[in-house]
Amino acid sequence: MSSLHILTTSASLLAFALLTEANRKDGYRNGAESQTTSAVQPGQAREVLPAEMNKRQSVVWAHGLMMAIAFIVLLPCGAMLVYLPKFKGRVWLHAGWQLFTYAILLAGMGLGVWLTEVKDYWEVQNGHPSIGVFVVGALLLQPLTGLIHYWQWERNHPALRSASISGEVHRWWGRIIVILGIVNGGLGMHLAGIKTGRVITYSVLAGFFSLSWLGVVVGTHFYCARRAGVARPEQSSTTGTQRVRSEGEQHFRTASTTKRNDSSDTD
C-alpha cells in the first residue's frame, strides 16, 4: 500500500506542477485584471475575463497531455512489459507501471470533470466526457482480473495456465479499453478545437505505439506456437520409437516362445 500511495502522490504532484507552470505563464501575476468583474444582471451571461479563459485553456492542455501520454504511451508500454524475457519481478514491474499510469489517469480525469462543470461540456453532443468517465472506471477491473490470473498462474498446473478465463478477460478488456481511450482522445481534441497539425501528431504517435504493441503480441504468439510445434514432433518421435521398440521386443518374445514350443514337440 505504501508504494501505491507514493505512485498516487507522484501523479498528483505532476498535475499540480503542470497547472502551476501554466498559470504562471498565463498572466496571473496581474491581480488587478482578475478583480475587474462587472455586475451581472439576472438573465444576462457573465462576462468571462481573459485570465479565466487562460486558466481554462491551461487546464484543457494539462488534461489533454496527461490523458494522451497515459493512453498512447504508458499503457501500451506497460502491457508490453509482460512480454519481456522472464526475470524475477517482471509481473510486479508490469503491475506497478500500470498503477502509476492509472494514478495519472485519475488526476487527468479530475481536471476533465472540473472542465465539464465550468464549460458545460456535458451539454455538448460529443460524447467525450461520458466515454472518458466510462473508460477510466472500466480500467478498475484490470487490477482485479490481473491478481486473479496471477493467483491461478502460481497455483495451477502449467498445462492449465493458458486456459485462465481471468487472464483472457484481463488481456482483451485492457486492449479494448485502451483503444477506446485513444479514440476518445481524438474526440476530445475535436471538442477543444485543437489544430489539425497537432491532431495528426497525436494520430501518428497513437498508431506507432499501437502497432508496436500489436507486433509484440502477434510476434510472441507465433514464437510460442512455433516452439510448441517443434516440441510436439520430438515428443511424438520419442513416443513412436518407444512403441516400436516395445512392439519389437514383444515380437521377439513371441517368436522365442513359439520356437521353444516347436522344439519341445519335436523331442
Automatic annotation (TrEMBL):
The chain crosses the membrane at residues 60-84, 91-111, 131-151, 172-193, 199-224. The keyword Transport applies. SMART domains: B561 (SM00665). Residues 234-243 have a biased composition (Polar residues). Residues 1-22 form the signal peptide. Keywords: Electron transport, Membrane, Signal, Transmembrane, Transmembrane helix, Transport. Residues 26-225 form the Cytochrome b561 domain. The keyword Phosphoprotein does not apply. Residues 234-267 are annotated as: Disordered. It is found in: Membrane. PANTHER family: CYTOCHROME B561 DOMAIN-CONTAINING PROTEIN-RELATED, DEHYDROGENASE, PUTATIVE (AFU_ORTHOLOGUE AFUA_8G05805)-RELATED. This is Cytochrome b561 domain-containing protein. It comes from Rhizodiscina lignyota.
